[in-house]
């Protein structure tokens, strides 16, 4: 029960990142399924769900990987939640870190090794400065604006204690 209380009801599962070996084929597949692409870079794409505000993303992997996903739980105050969980004995792979894609994240693994990110992105999750603006014509994507706004060097800065 202590773990449930520590996680609280304010955590919102809203994004999963999937590894892919061919970004072009993967993006095409999800666009054809009807998802709206909101971020488009050669190594990363993000889609908005058709209902609600959940998103999922694709991350290009250049090395062999086993299929897996990263679960994202959005929290207003990542640092406080990490300290709270550390007091309960949880160990983090990465303490709260500010990233160039404007999210603050901490990384932990579940007992099976699944990667979980506790993060805060605010408006930057659905509306990053490099958001892909698209026009649609009878359900077909007609433009690819916004690509030049995406960050070219994704870096991290650990500002945690």
From TrEMBL:
Region (Disordered): 141-161
Pfam families, alphabetized: Glyoxalase (PF00903)
Cross-referenced InterPro entries: Glyas_Bleomycin-R_OHBP_Dase (IPR029068), Glyas_Fos-R_dOase_dom (IPR004360), Glyoxalase_1_CS (IPR018146), VOC_core (IPR037523)
Polar residues bias: start-end ranges: 150-161
Species whose genome carries this gene: Parahalioglobus pacificus
Keyword Metal-binding: yes
PROSITE patterns for this protein: GLYOXALASE_I_1, VOC
VOC domain: residues covered: 12-121
Protein name: VOC domain-containing protein
Molecular function terms, GO-annotated: lactoylglutathione lyase activity; metal ion binding
Keywords, sorted A to Z: Metal-binding
């Amino acid at each position: 029960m202590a773990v449930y209380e520590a996680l609280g009801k304010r955590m919102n599962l809203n994004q999963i990142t999937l590894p892919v070996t061919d970004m072009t084929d993967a993006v095409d597949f999800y666009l054809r399924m009807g998802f709206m692409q909101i971020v488009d870079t050669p190594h990363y794409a993000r889609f908005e769900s058709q209902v609600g505000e959940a998103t999922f993303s694709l991350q290009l992997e250049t090395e062999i990987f086993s299929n897996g996903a990263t679960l994202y739980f959005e929290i207003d105050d990542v640092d406080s939640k990490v300290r709270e969980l550390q007091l309960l004995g949880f160990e983090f792979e990465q303490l709260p870190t500010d990233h160039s894609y404007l999210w603050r994240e901490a990384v932990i693994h579940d007992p099976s090794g699944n990667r979980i990110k506790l993060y805060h992105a605010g408006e930057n999750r659905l509306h990053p400065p490099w958001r892909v603006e698209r026009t649609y014509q009878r359900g077909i994507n007609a433009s690819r604006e916004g690509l030049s706004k995406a960050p070219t060097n994704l870096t991290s800065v650990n500002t945690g204690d």
